[in-house]
TrEMBL record:
This is DUF2974 domain-containing protein. It comes from Lactobacillus equicursoris. It comes from the Bacteria. SUPFAM superfamilies: alpha/beta-Hydrolases. InterPro entries: AB_hydrolase_fold (IPR029058).
């Protein structure tokens, strides 16, 4: 299986390609390695996006499913703003803060498609990839997988922990495949909200040994580092991770006001949301975020950022 031969660096590059212009019928190549041919390009009405890559060259068919993440606040148009942020990302965030979560339809759509492809490719082993919203969709789809034996492995990057949104049955299914699902978490990326205990998550934790940079670059793998063999630098859970978890626990348990504040999106037109969201976030910062882990965490990293800058300056002088 070609997926089993990829390095950590290859897998990150593979997942990044979801943000490129991909076309059905094209070969899907990562760092000179042919993964297969693109056979499906799905853009569902609720914004769920995924690609299916098939490889029939081996002894057994191999299918790679690549769930696409959201286009982002900076690059989204009116459609992506509605489908990805208002209808999916926003409700997931609100659901994390409430005791009565309402799941976005994109998660259920991802589940339906994954189970459909498992039936459509009955003799194939499937490998699942996803980043950000794509990781969230993939995690939920895996928790609803009807044929776990067909899943070869999954690689999920920088998504929110949806464990608290799952039913007991879904947690059992995810637990059966825990050893196959690799979940990568950079604690400096605020999108990776909710990882407060390593056993309460979809998959096994890969704690990235990252460095703090700007938020957008951080979310787009900017803090990831690799050795000469393409292996990702990781570390064991340490006091820094536990501290982040404690801050997030306080944040999630004390923000019912924020959940109510964010849940009234239907009263606005999509075209108004960029302006209104900016106004709302300013109010959120004043009302809630002054006491959250986000501000605390950022403040505690100022010293580390200075040390990193000093090291960079030293390296430049040495060169």
């Amino acid at each position: 299986m070609i997926n089993d031969l990829l390095t950590d660096y290859d897998r990150v590059c593979l997942t990044k390609k979801a943000y490129e212009g991909l076309n059905v019928g094209d070969d899907f190549v990562v760092n000179g390695k042919l993964i297969g041919r693109i056979v499906r390009d799905v853009y569902a009405q609720d914004g769920m996006q995924a690609y299916v890559i098939e490889n029939q060259a081996g002894r057994r068919d191999e299918v790679t499913v690549l769930f696409k993440g959201s286009s982002g606040l900076r690059n989204g148009n009116a459609t992506t703003w509605r489908d990805e942020w208002l209808n999916t990302n926003w409700p997931i965030f609100v659901a994390m803060l409430t005791s009565r979560p309402k799941l976005p339809s994109a998660l259920k759509t991802a589940s339906s498609y994954l189970n459909k492809w498992l039936v459509e490719f009955p003799d194939a082993i499937l490998y699942i990839y996803g980043h950000s919203l794509g990781a969230i969709n993939a995690a939920y789809a895996l928790a609803n997988c009807r044929h776990p034996s067909q899943i070869g492995a999954a690689y999920l990057y920088e998504g929110t922990n949806i464990w608290r949104l799952l039913t007991r049955r879904q947690r059992q299914v995810a637990g059966q495949m825990r050893h196959k699902i690799n979940t990568y978490v950079d604690i400096y990326d605020p999108v990776t909200l909710g990882y407060t205990a390593t056993h309460k998550m979809v998959g096994k934790l890969h704690y990235v040994d990252s460095l703090p940079i700007s938020p957008i670059k951080q979310h787009m793998w900017g803090g990831y580092r690799f050795d000469d063999q393409g292996r990702l630098l990781e570390k064991e859970v340490d006091s820094r991770f536990l501290q982040s978890s404690q801050m997030q626990t306080r944040f999630l348990s004390g923000t019912s006001e924020l959940a109510q504040f964010l849940s009234g999106k239907d009263e606005y037109r999509v075209s108004d949301w960029k302006k209104i969201t900016s106004q709302k976030l300013t109010q959120v910062k004043d009302r809630v975020f002054n006491q959250t882990f986000l501000k605390d965490f950022e403040g505690q990293d100022q010293k580390l950022r200075k040390e990193i800058d000093q090291l960079k300056q030293k390296d430049e002088k040495d060169e």
